[in-house]
Each structure stands twice: as C-alpha cells, then as structure tokens.
Amino acid sequence: xxxxxxxxxxxxxxxxxxxxxxxxxxxxxxxxxxxxxxxxxxxxxxxxxxxxxxxxxxxxxxxxxxxxxxxxxxxxxxxxxxxxxxxxxxxxxxxxxxxxxxxxxxxxxxxxxxxxxxxxxxxxxxxxxxxxxxxxxxxxxxxxxxxxxxxxxxxxxxxxxxxxxxxxxxxxxxxxxxxxxxxxxxxxxxxxxxxxxxxxxxxxxxxxxxxxxxxxxxxxxxxxxxxxxxxxxxxxxxxxxxxxxxxxxx
Length: 250
Hints:
Number of helices: 2
Helix content: under 10%
Low-confidence stretches: 1-11, 135-147
Strand order of the largest sheet: 1-6-5
Largest sheet: 3 strands, antiparallel
Mean pLDDT: 81
Number of strands: 6
Oligomer: single chain
Order of helices and strands: EEEEEEHH
Radius of gyration: 27 Å
Shape: flat
C-alpha cells in the first residue's frame, strides 16, 4: 500500500498510529484542559465489621450476605504534603480517602440493603506535583475551590474497589468483610495546549424510532439483526502490525 492511499486510514479519537497518514489540520486550537503531570498507583485493604439490621417485624432473622455494590469516593483530604529535598517539584503525600458502598443481604424474609463506609489512609512516597502558577500575581477564576490547591494543583483520585472474605453470623447479623481498593493518585494542573484540529465533531444522524409493535419483528429477523460475532470491544491496534502491512504491500 502506498503512503498516498488514504482508504486504509481511519481517523478515530484517542488513537494515532502514524501521524504521516493524517491530512493537514483545519486549524491550530489553543485549549484549556487539566493535564496529568504524574500519577501513582496504590493499593490498600481494610476489614469492616457491620451489624446487619433485620426488616420491620422480623422476630427471628436468619441473615445471609449477598454482596456489596455501588462503591463511591465521598471524601478526600490531604493530611500532609512534603516537598522533596533532592528533586524539585516532587512531593510526599499523606491522604485520607473515604469510600461509601451498599451491602446487600437477606434476613430470611426480606431482601435488604445497608450503607457502610470504609476509610483509607494512603501514603504516596514520591509524585511529581509542580506548582501550577508560573508567576506571582496570577489571578485564577475559582471554578472549584474545594479541589484546587493554593498553588493551582489539582489532586484527583480514582479507585476500583471490591469486597471479599465475607463472613456473617446468621443469628446476630454481625458481618465481617475485607474491602480492597486499587487507587490511582493523579497530580493535575490546568494548562493551555496548542493542538491540531479538524473542525467540530459532526452532528450525528437523527435517530429513527421503530414502532413498538415492530421491535421484536426486526430483532427476530436474522438478516436485519444478525447475531453478534463478539461480546467484547476490539483490542487496540498494534502500530507494528500496520508497519508490517505497509512493507508487504510496498
């Protein structure tokens, strides 16, 4: 395949395999975005003991644990922030993170849910968090003063949580379980970036609604609605495979 052949190239957001294949941009745009300067992965696990509450009117409950869902970060505090003595811009952070989740259980009669919270004390030994203000006297519009530090730094925490090792006393309702969480701590600054742009995103085609009486007819028609060939998204294309294909075609 020659380099001038654009039929093989498909421009998709978030993926650039070979910049040489892309057409010249329509314009250069200055955008203001949060840029991640550094990120650190941390894991932590705590054991929770919760007393389950029976439903109204249940005299002799028989408790059983069914699972935990709806994990959500509800509080983040910076306990301390220490500048590195040897590396400019690097810091040691001590963070407090609280996660709320829902416990699903059965008292022998009712399907019930109960809210619980787990607290984590995280230590990030080294992360690059430079001052976001380039000069003294810069005035910032306070979009969210609760997340922006005095020097413009934004600390963002993402988490993936799971409950396991659960054990419940069927008669007393005392539940013990471990809550393990994978955290990603990010240091961000609001910056201006110059990027190539191909114009605004096109307006999608208008959705055509089918009458409810025809929905199952269209679904059951194997020609109109073939059975899917896969149940998972495509894997990211390997740029090396593209290079090999170009070498073979040349």
